[in-house]
C-alpha cells in the first residue's frame, strides 16, 4: 500500500459525538466515502483555500449582512435566479438505529415548521441518521435539517463591483449576505 501526498492537510475540527464503523477498501474513493458519512451524520466538511480539510458540526460560513450589502451602487446585473423547491420539506421524522450491548435500538423525533406548512402545504420527509445514540443529538440534527429545507433554496448569480459596501475579498465559501 502506498500513500501519495495530495497537499491537503488537517485543518480545523470541531468536537463531535459522531462516529462511524465504515470501512475503506482498496479502490474506494475517499471523497465519496466522506460525503456519505457527512450526509448520514448531518455534519459538514470543506477544503479551504489553504488546502486544509476542516470538519464542522454546523453549517460553516458567516452571516456578513451586518458588514456588507448589495445595493444599486455596487450591483451591475442579476444574471440568473433559480428557485429550487425539489428539496423542500417542513415535516421531518428523524430516526436513528444503533446497537448497544448487542441489542438493536431505535430513537425517533418529529420536527415541523408551521409557517412553511401554511405557506407551501405539508411536505414530509423521513431522515435516517444512523449511529446517533442520544435523543438530544438526534433532535438537533433533525432541527438543522428542517431549518435548511423548510424554505425554497434561492440561488442568484450577481455581478457586483468591489467597494466599501461589498468587499468580495473578505467573503469566503459559505459566507452569505441577506438581500
Describe this structure in words.
The chain is an alpha/beta fold. It has helices spanning 30-41, 114-120, 135-149, and strands spanning 9-13, 44-47, 52-56, 75-84, 91-100, 103-112, 124-128, 153-160. A 3-stranded mixed sheet has the order 1-3-2, with no helix packed on it. A 3-stranded mixed sheet has the order 6-5-7, with helices on one face. A two-stranded antiparallel ribbon has the order 4-8. The longest helix is centred in the last third of the chain and has 15 residues, at 135-149. The termini are far apart.
Cα distance, first to last residue?
51 Å
Please describe the biggest sheet, giving its number of strands, its sense, and whether it closes into a barrel. 3 strands, mixed
- Silhouette: globular
**What structural class is derived from the secondary structure elements?**
alpha/beta
Whole-number radius of gyration?
20 Å
Total number of beta strands: 8
Proportion in helices: 10-25%
| Mean pLDDT across every amino acid position | 82
Helix-strand topology string: EHEEEEEHEHE
Brief digest:
By secondary structure, the chain is α/β, with parallel strands linked by helices.
Short descriptors:
three-stranded mixed beta sheet, alpha/beta, 179 residues, single chain, globular
